Amino acid sequence: MKTDFWMMHRSVAHYKGGLPVGLEERLLKLYNPDQYVNLCSGSCIKGLTIDLNAECRPTIVADATRVPLKDNVADLVFIDPPYDQTYAKMLYKMKLPSTSKLLAEATRIAKAGGRIILLHFWTPKKPKGTLLEQLIAIQTGPYKKIRLLSIFRKNETLLDNPNFIRLEGFNHE
Length: 173
Hints:
Blueprint: E1 2-7, H1 23-31, E2 36-39, E3 48-51, E4 60-61, E5 74-79, H2 85-92, H3 99-109, E6 110-120, E7 130-139, E8 147-154
Parallel strand pairs: 1-7, 2-3, 2-5, 3-4, 5-6
Antiparallel strand pairs: 6-8, 7-8
């Protein structure tokens, strides 16, 4: 597993906890995904944005733990959920979403070999079917909390690999 530290500019969002300036662009340049999904998208406008707050004008207004997308559709899934109950009530007028449910849903919609990136204050438990690939600490200025990008890669099974040769009459499941 790799680690890194990025200094970035503070958010210009109209609410506390917005993305550091340039973070989304940096991730998109780094991973260059064909299909990018942003869960709990807030004020982000790139890719397919999904948020419960219609005022943020997401592509899809939905609960990010139950996304109306098929399995295995995204090369990159980014999640920037409310960090605590105060944020959840302030931004969404609801209780804090379960990080493990958000990660499970992101894993479901990610393609094999795709990445799931969570921005939070702590490292979550690794979602089933993924590998922890990298941790990146992000600082936006003096006396600001450090946030952490946890970057997971969805496992590729033999059945997902296009080079896998199927044997007739053999159960590969």
